[in-house]
Amino acid sequence: MLVLALLCPVARAGKRTDNGERRFVVTLDAGHGGHDSGALGKHSREKDITLQMVKKVGALIDKNLSRDVKVVYTRDDDYFVTLENRAKIANDAKSNLFISIHINSVAAGARNRSTVEGTSVYTLGLHKTDDNLAVAKRENAVIELEGNDEMYKAFDPESQESDIIFELTQNKRLDQSIEFAEAVHDLLVSTAGRTPKGVRQAGFWVLWATSMPAVLIELDFICNPTVEDYISSDKGQDEMAAAIYNAFCSYLNTYGPEILSHKVSARQLPADRKSSGNSAVPMPPQKKTKPEQAVPPPPAKDRIKPIDDDEGSEKKPAYRIQFTASVRPLNLKSPEIEGVDNPRYYVEDGLYKYTTGPYSNEKKARKELKKMREEYPDAFIIIIKEGKRAGMLK
C-alpha cells in the first residue's frame, strides 16, 4: 500500500557530497501553489508568501551552512504539487527534517476576521479513530482539489496494520518534532513579534507521510489587514525567516553530529541584524535549564486545573472544546488562554491540551464551538468519560 510504503523507515545518514562527506538534508515545503492559491488576503495570496518564505529560509541556510546542509524544495516556483508528492520528495531525498510553511485564515463571516492574529506550529499527534482523515481534510483542503480521495483513505489509524506502523515511526520522531516546533514558535514570537498561539498537534497528512521529524508552521492570519501587510513585506518576511533559520541552527547543533559524524557549529543570526544580507556570526551556546532551576509555578489563583477525574461517564459523557496545546504548562495569564472561560487541561503525548466546558450534550457543545472558532479556528469537540478523553466529534 502506497502510504505504508511512504512510512517505511528511510536512511537517516543524510546525503553524501562528491568528496564523500555527509550532509544534513532539510526539505522546505511552500504550501499550496498553481491553481491552489491557499488563503487569500486583500492584496496577497498564501501560495506566493509561502514560496517567498521558503526561498528566504533556504537562502540563509545555503549562505551560512552549505558545507553541512543540503536544502531540498518541494516546489521552487508557482506550480501545484500534491500532498503525496510533497512527502515523496522529502522521503526520496532521505531528508532529516521537513518544514512546511503555511498562512492561516478564518471564515469570511467570522466576526474576528480582521483582528485575529498569532502564530502556531504543528506536529503530528498520535491520533486515533476520529482524528484521522476528517482533521487532515479540514487542515488540508488541497486533498479535495486533487480529486484523489482513495489515496488518502489509506490514512486510517483505525486499521490495526496502519496503527502499528504509525506508532513505530511516529514515536521515533515525535520528540524531535516537538522540540523543533517549540523553538520555531518561541523565535517567531521573540524575533518577529508574532502573537503566540502555541505548539499544537493535528492530523496533517503530509506530516504523517514523511519519514522524518516534521513541522507545519502557520505564520499568522492573512485575513487580518495589519498582519497581511507585515507578512507580505520584506521586513516581515526577513524577520520570520531569521526566526525559522535560528531555530534550525539550534536543531542542527543538537542533532547534526549524529548525521554528519562531526561536530556542528551552526551560526545564528543576531536579532538586530536578522536576515538583511549580513553574514551570520557565532552566538553563545544556550545553556539547558536544570530541573532545580525551573521557573517556579504561578500563584495558585492563576493555575489551570486538570479535568476532574469524575467528569462524564460511560452512560452520560461530558463534552469539551479543545482549543490549544502546549509543550509547557500554561496559566490563566498566558496569551493562549486569555479570555477563555473555565479552562481545564489534560496531558497526552507529552503535550498539555487545553479545553473549555464541560457541556452536558452535543448540541450545546456545537453551539459554543461556533463561537470558539472565531478566536481558535482549529478548535474541536472532545468526549470526556471519567475524566479522560474518549474520542472527538467531527
Overview features:
single chain; 394 residues; alpha/beta; Aminopeptidase; 7-stranded mixed beta sheet; 6-stranded mixed beta sheet; 13 strands
Note the beta-strand portion.
15-25%
Return the CATH class of the largest domain: Alpha Beta
Contiguous uncertain segments of 5+ residues: 1-13, 126-144, 154-169, 273-294
Give helix and strand order, one letter per element, not per position: HEEHEHEEHHHHEHEHHEEEEHEE
CATH topology of the largest domain: Aminopeptidase
The CATH fourth-level homologous superfamily of the largest domain: Zn-dependent exopeptidases
Could you give the distance between the termini? Answer: 26 Å
Task: Give the fraction of residues assigned to helices.
Answer: 25-40%
Total strands: the figure is: 13
Q: Describe the sheet with the most strands.
A: 7 strands, mixed
Q: Could you say which overall geometry the principal axes of the C-alpha atoms support?
A: globular
Average pLDDT taken over every residue: 78
The total of helices stands at 11
Rg is 21 Å
> By helix and strand content, what is the structural category?
alpha/beta
**How many domain units?**
2
Describe, in plain words, how this protein is organized in 3D.
This protein has 394 residues and is an alpha/beta fold. It is 35% helix and 20% strand. It has two domains: 11-260, 3-Layer(aba) Sandwich (Aminopeptidase), CATH 3.40.630.40; 300-392, no CATH class. Strands 1, 2, 3, 4, 5, 6 and 7 form a seven-stranded mixed β-sheet that branches. It has a six-stranded mixed β-sheet with strand order 8-10-11-9-12-13, covered by helices on one side. α2 packs across α10 and α7 (160-190) packs across α10 (234-260). Residues 1-13, 126-144, 154-169 and 273-294 have low confidence and may be disordered.
